[in-house]
Amino acid sequence: MKTLGASGALALGKADAWDNPGLGGVRIWDQHAHLGQVPGDTPEERMAFLVKCMDRVGVERLILSQGYSDDRHPNPPEQFRLENDRVMRAVKAFPDRAYGSVYISPALPEFSIQELNRCVRDGPMVMIGEIEADARCNVPAMDPIAEWAVANDVVILQHEWLNALGNQPTESTPFDVVELARRHPKLQIVCAHTGGNWELGIRAIRSTANVYCGLAGSDPTNGYVEMAVRELGAERVIYGSDVGGRSFASQLAKVEGAAISDFDKKLILGGNLRRLLEPVLRKKGYKV
Asked: What pTM was computed for the model?
């Protein structure tokens, strides 16, 4: 294994790591990727680097959001617009390898609806999020965003965490995600990190069927995927890497090394995400 990229963020797996005949024909779709911490001076150059990494480890397509993550905490509207434009440039340069996901915040509800219309309804993007920490996702201002998502068959990727030292006041937890999902039972929402503390995060979302376990952004710990499949069913577990903050290789290892069936691995690595995205992809005339 070799490490490339800013601060070693994008470790590349060996090309033969996926020559496992038991996983023949697997189509890997990554639901959680960013251009931040990726080499390159433009969105196009950064995406070109990601494509090289994807080719090495067998990732067919990724969902890209947040541009360079040049956040100001809180972000003004023009920052969100800039980051979304960066993502659309990257996706336009590699339309067969990436789809875009719109970056918004419930702290800016009216502007967020405008960006949803600009980037998803009238633009090329197919997903919402990763929604970050400008406001917790259980606030009332999140309801119009959730209603828009349901009406337009769009999935939300929500950042959440369970910090051992305490979350930021505006940072969501899996419990906040569950509260939102129960208010909007037709909403499809992915916990970006399943709390980081996945043993607690998986239990938090277990009884809420429209909440999915995102595997991105934590260490490739033994037992994580096995517990998620046991407690939620493989249909509610979705692979993502969180590149460039994490590597494709380390996050793929969570699934590749898990003691689960090859069928379940195929669902987690791409089948579940394609199923969730199929309605919006078909509306836009994209290939599933």
From this structure: 0.91
